[in-house]
Amino acid sequence: MIGAVRLIYEGAFNLFEGPMRWLQRSLGTQRMVWVFLLPNLLIFGLFTYLPILLNAWYAGTSGDRILLGDRPWVGAANFATLLDCESYLNPNSCRRDLFWRAVHNTGWFVVLQVGFMVLLSLIAALILNRNIPLKGFFRAVFFYPVLLSPVVVALIWKWILQRNGVLNAGLDWAGMGTVNWLLDPNWAFFWIVFVSIWANMGFYVLILLAGLQAIPSDVYEAAEMDGTPAWRRLFRITLPLLTPTLLVVMVLSLIRAVQAFDEIYVLTGGGPGSATLLLIQYIYDVGFATRPRQFGLAAAASLMMAGVLMVLTLAQLAATRKRGEDG
Amino acid sequence: MKHTLTISALALMAAGAAQAQELRFMCYQDGVECEAWADAFATFEAENDGITVIVDEVPYAAIIESLPVQLEVGEGPDLARVTDYGGLARFLLDVRPHVSDAASIDARYGQSLAWSRVGDNAADGIYHIVDQLTATGGFANATLFEQAGVDMPGPGATWDEWAEASRAVRDATGVDFAMAIDRTGHRFAAPAISYGAALFDDDGHALVIDDGFRAFSEQFVGWHADETMARDVWAGAGGGTYQDAAGEFINANLVMYYSGSWQIGRFDRDIGDAFDWVATGGICGPAACTGMPGGAGIVGFNHTQHPEAVAKVMEFIARDDVQAQVLARTRNLPANANLQAEGIAYEGVSDDVAAALTAFASSVPGFSDTAFALQGYQFNRAVYTTIPARITQAIVGELSLDEALERLEQDVADAIAAAQ
Amino acid sequence: MFRWIIARRGRERFDLTDWMAFGFLGFGVVLMLGPVLWLVLSSFKTEAALQEYPPRLLPLAPQFQDVAGFDAPLQRFAVTGGEHAGRELVQIRRVGLNAQMIDPADPDTVLNVNIADREPVRAVEIAQENYTTVFTRFNFARYFWNSTFITVVATVLTVLFNSMAAFALAKYRFTGRTVVFVLIIATLMVPPTVTLVPLFLVVSQMGLINSPWAVIWPAIATPTGVFLLRQYMLTIPDDLLDAARMDNASEWRVYWKIVLPLSAPALAVLVIFSVMWRWNEFLWPLIVLNRSEVFTLQLALNSFQGELQTSWANLLAMTVLTLLPITLVFAFLQRFITQGIAQSGVK
To answer: What residues of chain A lie within 8 A of the CB of B118, using their CB?
Structure first.
């Protein structure tokens, strides 16, 4: 098996070696960089940038048709109606009150979910990186929920959290009072944060684990011989050397938290009321779930969201760059 | 829009289809509808040499999310099983010119045919054949009533009487919930109309918040405050999410459940002999005793290469013997007037189930015109999804009822305006 | 106080830090695996048992018994109250609140029991029909092949293209590097749900509808993959690359023979992600694939969801079946996450 993989690996190398050498000779070493970038950029251009541009066009139109030619141009009207508020702190004063409720909810969700998830993932990854027995098993366990489809995740937790579910049965058995978890706005919010950490944490643990492998072990050995205490090694060696990977985790988890949708939609449907309504659900509701679809409004909301996300991400990248050149 | 199929296998298939007239039928099912139709099409293919119908069974999400998008760019199947006639209206094929006996189809499917005669569609067009008529209505747990020693309200009882009786039964037997209504505007509309809601203005536009609508909304929110209604169903979700309470009813944890005829088969299977249940028939408000009609049907699309073949399939689907045979298996109510009169010999059902099916079938002719008008309204999905979103906010106290109703009216108006 | 997280166990005995670490792991196992285990157990329950409150851990089914003189098997009950308390009887029929029951040993004496005074006798019984339905109703082999084809081809291309781009971004200095990097990261900002419709327009214009390539092409350039690999490759020392270049190695050789092997842990992660994404992908295939000959397993799985009803028992069984292959892929690949650097002999 391994032998076959090695053979294919060598074969593929030889297959491309000739053409690539020729390219390098005719283009020069410096331009080779574009050869490496080209396949990715082509696909991005066609299947990502083009749709995003079309999406921007949708944001300036109205109607429920899909073909752009059938849609009347309305300019900034979609943005105007979303931003039409007496006070941005009070969703009830807004023309599109649910959009602003979703904005508020998403803000809280991102802060809580990203904060706790990054912390927990880091602890889990550090422990799983130790030389412990049953390492493979423990890793699989932490990663497994990531493999489940959002519908299944929501279904499992619905069974656990419902009024007569496993959690209440357990509390009852322990002599504690039961709670109708998903009917109380605060508890419902707690559980969507919890479940989304549960379902996504393994993803980041895996990335961090791979990152920890890049730290050469002789650095530790030297420190250990110097008698540097464990906590100091963590903050002086491990975390700084893990920075590039931590950045991946922070950026991705922030983006994915802002875009959280599937499992929460199935678990609470945004309820009770609009207590767990997040941005993507709002976009999905107005643009896809209700008929007639308001694509224009959905596209406008998504662009506003993308703008805010871009600013946050660049800020994250800039912050780490300042603290030491990351390349 | 021109497409060049680059994949040779597909090109070959398309070439083959040109001679053999292969029709694609996109089908979703709640029970065994697609299997029943696939079997029925074997008969059709035997009778019509050279036409084959291939059934592609898809999730309901494909019918709702992806079919409209495909149709708009000129892709998609020849036939499909759908529920949103208004939304798909402009893609539907009028088979009237191609069928041999249009008058007979009119006579047998008259009332439901109107559901897709909206927008620019012909006022006498035949666009779909309903193969699963549904009617909303209540189910009551008769065993719980007996246990509590409370008399069950009879036919023609009011919502108030049911609420009172259900509460008495709940308190006497210690079950969790007295009443529940599925979380969708489609179910909500029936009692609202019974309370006097007109829904439409004089020009035929929804949604009008009048005294009747307000009265039932107030009642409904009040029933949540005093816990007559199971909070879990409406308050447990947000937006337009659909939520039923069948699980509570099956577990004998709910006294009266307002849902619809499609639950009968499931109750038969999952309740078994655990308790007795009955269909309540129409429940009355001050103005009417109506339920809501609804249902899935089969449509052809106007982009098809073979309109004649599609029409042949539609005519086959409409045939009395074919409908009777398929419905007997799927345990659905007939939309066909002949079969409504004759009744259907459902396969392997108990007497209770047959009684419930009959009770629902016979309630349909008594439904109010407003109910049929809403079901045939082009933008009814906007109404169905906005009602739960806004009424729930009033139930959980995010908005006052007045604010919620105001927002509700505004949301529906916005959605409709966006489509024009 | 942070020793329990990073201390390297080995020479010493099992100390407090180990207990804390294993406490964390043990808690994690219960929390992470418990619900999954329940999913697997539930997939063996009948539809009626799935609806049951309070939910039970094991798939229990009511028990029936053949009694002479009755055509159909009769259900067994344990009587918990009333004059027959403590006996196990079978039920002939239920009339309202009253159950007519008999003792199988004495089938002629009909006993009346209040329905509140009896409980069904249950035993563990596996509803294997959940699984057999999946195989009989669908062309399972065909869908499995379609899913596998899409997953394998897309993953190979993803790893190849993304690692090439990541190599370029991590190991070269060139004008426009930051712009390209930001452009790639920027594609993460617009949620896929929103670009679904414009993307469909593009793909349908290319005539790819109902072809597996409609799923593969849009998926293989992933910003997550480029970002992940680029960050990892930053940690590979440039000296290694320069040494190879001194030996007159081509850029392609540097990439393929030095950078790729050294990135093994990150590549393994990307392979796992890519397999998982493609294998579980639902919404996009739903829109571009609508003929049953090109359906994937996820589409078949979701067709158990109707408008008004969902066949949970079948859906869960199919979920468990579709989980098996990716579980194996993960089990196989996770070893590489720790092996990369140690094996290639570089520190």
So the answer is: none
